[in-house]
Amino acid sequence: MEKGGKKMLTLDKVFEAQTVLKGIIRETNAVRSYGIAPDCELYLKPENLQITGSFKVRGSAYKIAMLSEEEKARGVIACSAGNHAQGVALAAAKNGIRSLICLPDSAPISKVEATKGFGAEVCLVEGCYDDAYAKALELKEQEGYTFVHPFDDENVIAGQGTIALEILNELDNIDAIVVPVGGGGLISGIAYTVKQIRPAVKVYGVQVSGAPSMYNSVQHGAVECLPSVSTIADGIAVKQPGENTYALVSEYVDELALVTDDEVASAILALIEKQKMIAEGAGAAAVAAVMFRKFDLAGKRVVAVVSGGNIDVTSLSRVIDRGLRNSGRSTSLLIELIDKPGQLKEISRIIADCGGNVTGVHYEKGHTESVNGCFLRIEMETRDYEHVHQITQTLQNEGFKLL
Known about the structure:
By secondary structure, this protein is α/β, with parallel strands linked by helices. Helix content is 43%, strand content 19%.
C-alpha cells in the first residue's frame, strides 16, 4: 500500500459508496445563488439540508455499512464536534448496532441533543475535538468498540467523495469547487474524485484563521498540530489533520486559504438574507472565501459546499448581530452631551433625517469635561458603513461630540 493510504481510496470505492448510500442519504441539488458573489456564477451545494443537517452522514454511513458482522456486533464508537456524531448515530441505528459518541463539552447543545435523538449514547469530554478523540480511543481499547474516524479513513473519505459525483453529474462546465476544511475528510473525498473524473476543475480549501491546521501543514510540508483552536466554526475546529487527508490534500487540492470569524459571520448573514438558507460556521466558510475573494474566481462557474446547518439558535443570534455590525448594518454611537432638555430629541431628528433607525438609547453618567455632562449611547440600524459615516459626520457638523 502506498504511504498515506492513497491507493486504498479508489474511484470504484466512491461509486460503490454512492450505491450503498442510496436510501440512506439525500441527494442535495445545487442551488444557483444571486447577490452573494456578483463577480462569479455561484452555485451552493446545500449539505445543510442533508439528513442530520450535515454531509458527515455520507462518510459514516458508508464506513459502518462496510464493517464485518463481528465489528458490528461489538458496536461503534466515534468522536465529534457534533455533525459526525449524528451521522454515526443514524447509520448505527439503521444497522441495528450500538453507538457511543464522545463529544467535546463545548459542542452546541442542539448537536448533543440531536445525537441522542438519533439513538446514540453520549460521553461529554472536557476540551475540544482532539480531547474527545483521545477519550474515544481510550474507551475503544477498554470496551472493544469499532472506532469510526470522522475524517482519516478511506471509507469515510470515499463516502464524502459522493458529493463530487453529484456535483459533476448535475452541473456542466464547472471551473472550481470551494470546500470547508477541518480534518480534511470532505475535501479529500471531493478533490480525489474530481481530479479522477474532471482534472481541469480547481478544488479550493478553506480554513478559519483560528484553526489553520491543514493550511499550516501544507505550507510547511508536514502534518502539524496546533496548540489550541478558537473559532465560531466549531465543525472545522481541528488541531491536527489526518495523515491520509494531509497526503490527499497535498496531492489533489489546488489551493488553501483562510477566512476570519467575522467573514464567516458575514457569510452566514448573507446566506440567510439572500438565499433563505441556514448554515453553521463551518458550513459558511466556503461561501465566505468566495464572498471575500480569497481565490481567483472572477467570471468563473463555482460551487461552494455548504457543509452543514447545525447551528445553535442562541449562537445564530450572536452571529447575526456580529454580521450586522461587521457590515455596517448595525452600529453604536457614544455621544458626550451637556445634560439639558431637548438633546435626545435633536439627536433623534438628525439620525431620522439621515435615514437611520434608532433601536436603543442608554443614558450614562461618567467623568466628562463638564460638571453637567453625560454620555448617550445610541444603538441604530443603518444601511452600510457609508451610511454610518454620513450620520456621524452630520452629528459632528451640528456640534455634537462623538467618542
